[in-house]
Amino acid sequence: MSIADDPAGAAPEPSLGGAALLARGVSRALGQLGCASLHEFSLASGRRADVIALGRGGEIAIVEVKSSIADFRADRKWPEYWEYCDRLYFAVAAGFPHELIPPECGLILADPFGAAILRASELRPLNAARRRVLTLRFAMVAAQRLRRLLDPGAVDPGLV
Question: Which pTM was predicted?
Answer without folding.
Answer: 0.85
